[in-house]
Amino acid sequence: MRLRLLLLVCLVVLGLPAAAGARSFPTYSGFHSVLAFGEGENTSAQDLAGFFANGSVPATDLNQQPLYEGLEQAWPGFTAADLNRYYKNSSFAPQPAGSPLPLARQRGQNLPSNLPGGLPGAVSGPLAPVLGSLPGQLNTIVGGSPSGTESPRAGLTIVRQAPYEVPRIYGDTRAEAMWGAGFVTAEDRLFLMDVLRHTAEGTTAELLGPSAAAADSTQLGLQDATPAQLTSQMMALPKTMGAEGAQALNDIEQYVSGVNAFINLTRIDPARLPAEYPALGITPRLWTLADSAALGTYLIGQFTVFGGQQPQQAEALRLATQRLGRRRGTAVYRDLRLAADPEAVVTLSRRFRSDATGRVNPSSEAIIDPGSLVARNAETGSTVSPAVSAATAQGATRSRLPAWAQHLATHGLALPHLESNAVLVDARRSGTGQALAAMGPQVGYYTPEIFLEYELHAPGIDVSGVSFP
């Protein structure tokens, strides 16, 4: 289940018959969507300077917030006509006719081909020793950023429309579409992806220096699989999951290749590189299968098992049963546990036995012995000289960072844990005879948010919704 969730988390998924041929994608109307803040985009140098000068932010970071918040004030009197006022139209649109423009983003520059990660072109000049001098036809990058149409590789078209800039991805094949999903995710979330990757892998010190070592140590106490182990898990998908696993692995490999294509593009066109990288004096390393596995585990864990302190709960259960006996100790544990509260306010009157395990074979249980759960200290290396305290050394390191990075180094990546919300109306009460549900955001409120939205179209695939980076 964990690895399946790495592929795509969708709000709306339509299972449709395979298209008859390339570019023959269906169109549907009546779909509406809204993100809590906005699609967001990678931060340019101008964006970063504007934020520190006057607090301004890119429009796409926040331009869906009025929709999301306005909906709360729309009652009473909300009508079907208000859907386009408080939600944006996300109906499926036909792929633009004719040949797509080459990569339509930046100002009349040339895009080398045959770069690692799948971009077509040739490399010359100072970057040749790094990326290699590879012959190939040059594509021209035209148009403005970010609205427009781009074709970062043959068989793939990406369309964005102002003002919300949600990418619509059209692939001649499934592989092209998955590659495009990786490309647009990096295009809109690269630095956030990198921060999340380092956080998940316990390597944020690479970004922020030794001040992040303690946080890395804590994370490695929760999630310490090696890159080789994570890669092995991914490569085993065809064996463990059969044909679905084989398809999943191919999808993820294409996605990773698309991410890396954008990373390589930033090496050719520094204007595409998020401004946080030069501010920290670093460059992004290429993405890997292991990165996707580690990040998927981290994000799912953040909103499930890691937040529930399962190891500590297992230790508490064993302690209670040792002191009070199996039956009484289990009863005390269940009474104290933050689980089903019979006095809680609920959405539905029907009860669901989601925590009913049935009869359990005691020999299959692995409960932690009291006292054996010890916080891991994963910090290594030489100690700080007595002449310079650790606090002084870390303070000096932080003082050299930009202001926003100092906060990140001091407080870490604190993903908000605000409650989710939902409104459900059954068919009898909806007034239209159709059940309605509005649910979100599940992951808290901040920008750029974890979710990004896109459409994905390829033979046999037509989806609209959100995905984790």
Explain this structure.
- This protein is of the alpha+beta class and 469 residues long.
- The chain is 38% helix and 10% strand.
- It has 17 helices and 12 strands.
- It has helices spanning 2-5, 45-54, 59-62, 65-70, 83-86, 128-131, 174-201, 205-208, 213-222, 227-235, 237-268, 276-280, 289-302, 310-324, 326-336, 390-399, 403-411, and strands at residues 12-14, 32-33, 88-89, 109-111, 139-141, 148-150, 156-160, 168-171, 421-425, 436-440, 452-458, 461-467.
- The protein has a 6-stranded mixed beta sheet, with helices on one face. The chain has a two-stranded antiparallel sheet with strand order 2-3. The protein has a two-stranded antiparallel sheet with strand order 4-5.
- Helix 7 (174-201) crosses helix 13 (289-302) and helix 10 (227-235) packs across helix 13 (289-302).
